């Protein structure tokens, strides 16, 4: 245990809390900071150490992991006198597991290098269930040596762990992931409404569909959400709205057309505008129901 790197974890939300707890279970010493006291209490109850500030959390850490909602939050915790770069030790490895713009990751890596701090962008896919079960897919951008050093940490958090290229590459792949997931959820939602309006047994239909070419991890994970209209957030519409903005902007910058993705991005935005931003992204079903004449 004493040979394992000391870890600071910044951001203990829906994803961050179970992920940090999995590191504790794997034998790592984890010191965490977040803005919500109940999340700090949860970390302490799991065997971690609650810090009173970012500076306190990162001061003695070998590895600093961040998991916050978006680029502005990553910049807020990283820069400035109270941020990670001013308070982490030289030689520390900063792993940002948030989903942000590729350019934010590139800029962070450059600024950290000036402080003698190494950076990996390592966003994840798998949602709350994947975080709890430690089966996340982790897409990484950065240097090979840093990736190799971080691999045991990643192994405690996920199952599919791939170095995708230089800084920003992990975020680019995550953007593509979010595009695929959103389009997939939208297709599933449309199928659910079609099946129900046709009078088909929805449970039976989804079971057989998931056993064929129409099957997917999305359908496996979200089937019960659709069946039970359970939209407790595993991944909020608000965050997927942010991610669709990232992928559409990045695609525009490289000249890639996303005709279906653009439509789904607008459907996500409309759902958010209707007050459903705090629901799970499987709540795209609600948007299809509204378009089909249901009072939701």
Strand content: 5-15%
Shape: globular
Could you say which structural class the secondary elements and strand pairing correspond to? alpha/beta
Share in helix: 40-55%
What is the chain-wise order of helices and strands? Answer: EHEHEHEHHEHEEHEHEHHHHHH
For the secondary structure, the number of strands is: 9
Q: Provide the spatial order of strands within the biggest beta sheet.
A: 3-2-1-4-5-6
Task: State the end-to-end distance.
Answer: 52 Å
Query: What about the largest sheet?
Result: 6 strands, parallel
Summed over residues and divided by their number, the pLDDT gives a mean of 97
Number of helices: 14
Helix-strand layout with pairing:
Layout: E1 7-10, H1 16-25, E2 30-33, H2 37-45, E3 49-50, H3 54-58, E4 63-66, H4 71-78, H5 84-87, E5 93-96, H6 102-113, E6 118-121, E7 124-125, H7 127-133, E8 136-141, H8 144-155, E9 158-165, H9 169-197, H10 202-210, H11 217-228, H12 237-254, H13 259-276, H14 284-291
Parallel strand pairs: 1-2, 1-4, 2-3, 4-5, 5-6, 8-9
Antiparallel strand pairs: 7-8
Helix pairs in contact: 9-11, 9-12, 9-13, 9-14, 10-11, 12-13
Would you write up a description of this structure?
It is built from 14 helices and 9 strands. The protein has 296 residues and is an alpha/beta fold. Helix 9 packs across helix 11, helix 9 packs across helix 13 and helix 9 (169-197) packs across helix 14 (284-291). The mean pLDDT is 97.
